[in-house]
Amino acid sequence: MKKLKPFIPFLFPVLVVLFGLIIYKVLGYEPNVYTIIINIGSAFILSPRIKKIPKENGTEEQLSWLFYKKILK
């Protein structure tokens, strides 16, 4: 999991581009305000977040996706 940690901040823009390609190229929609809001909103919901949790031994980082939580060391 430590190998993935430097790339976590870059996952949101990658997801925006990926959803943009799906919406505009595969589904064939025109870029407008609604498709852009759906694109960015779905990328925001599916992007991971890192939470710092205070513990007795120090702070612990927790990586949380939509329905998945993993403790980073």
Spatial separation of the terminal alpha carbons: 8 Å
Query: What percent of residues adopt helix (DSSP H or I)?
Result: 40-55%
User: Major β-sheet, in short?
Assistant: 3 strands, antiparallel
Could you tell me the radius of gyration in angstroms? 16 Å
Computed structural class: alpha+beta
Order of helices and strands: HHEEE
Molecular shape: elongated
- State the low-pLDDT regions, or none: none
Please report the number of helical segments: 2
Report the β-strand fraction as a percent range. 15-25%
- If you average the pLDDT, what whole number results? 84
**How many beta-strand elements?**
3
| Major beta sheet, strand line-up | 1-2-3
Written account of the structure:
With 73 residues, this protein is of the alpha+beta class. 41% of the residues lie in helices and 25% in strands. The chain has a 3-stranded antiparallel beta sheet, with no helix packed on it. Helix 1 packs across helix 2. It starts with 10 loop residues before the first helix and ends with a strand.
Task: Give a quick rundown of the structure.
This protein has 73 residues and is an alpha+beta fold. 41% of the residues lie in helices and 25% in strands. A hairpin with a 2-residue loop joins strand 1 and strand 2 (58-64).
Task: For the structure shown, list the relevant keywords.
73 residues, alpha+beta, 3-stranded antiparallel β-sheet, 2 helices, 25% strand
